Hints:
9-stranded mixed beta sheet, Aminopeptidase, single chain
Amino acid sequence: MEFMIINSAALMAEFISAWEVAFQRTLDRSVYNWVFNAKNKIFGVLDGDKIVAGYCLMEFDAIYHGVQKKGLLCNNVFVNGYKYQKLGLFDKLTEYSINEAKKYKYDFAVGFPNEKAIKSHLRSGWNEGPIIHFYELDPNFIQDEHIDLSNKIIEWYSSKDAALQSKLPEISNFYAINSHNYSYSSFRSNNFVAWRYLENPRYSYDFCFVYDVSGKLTGVFICKYYPANKKVHLVDYIINNNEHIKVSIKSIIKKYNNREIDVIDCWVSKSDSEVFTCVGFKKSERFTYCISRGIESDFRIDLSSHIVLGDNDVY
């Protein structure tokens, strides 16, 4: 068996075939092109002419204790079949992939594994961070409460709106300033926001910008309507005025009042929990695991981190 970097069209085609076997689904070619892009470091194990395991590390930037760092998001990890699992390929491919990442001087890696994978990641050297709970809001909780929106400026854009391109520097600057309030926050560069939301072939997103009466930006929310569950995901958010959270949520409810909504939900880190509970969000039983590891330096995600659904490529 050969451990390798997936760096050719032929290997990529074989990797996708193996991925489809592992996850038992087939996606549109545009989705594969989007997620398995040049910033996603893709590794595999070849047995003869067949890829039997895969491991991906997506490049992104983050602010860690006030300093911008180069990070990697662990994604799309699989080992096909018990035959290969009992050979310890998960641990061996993890080691190979992280060692390759060291050559490019990445500072850290993070991931959000499911319940089936968490033990394997911890066994292979990852550190378990705080679990990230979903918080949920019944939109009727504040539907009837009078909240004055007239003294705030609310702007909405679809991710498909050409005009949104000119707003990307505003998002990036706002994130750069306010991420310093946390020990860790991924950095929303222009390129990252464009790739993550505007170019995503699977979903359309709605961007909510909240300004005070002077025109100063006080909050950004990125939302996705999920019709199957009559749900609105707050996929991404950052605010610098906690008093405006109720106005923001009221505006989001108003935005979707022509659709059926049973719940509004989001990932909420411990550091943001008070902001959301003050407007009626409740911590649900649903959660995700969070893992991290240092590559070039010590690194660990703690309770004062800011983590949102948009940090994971699947939402």
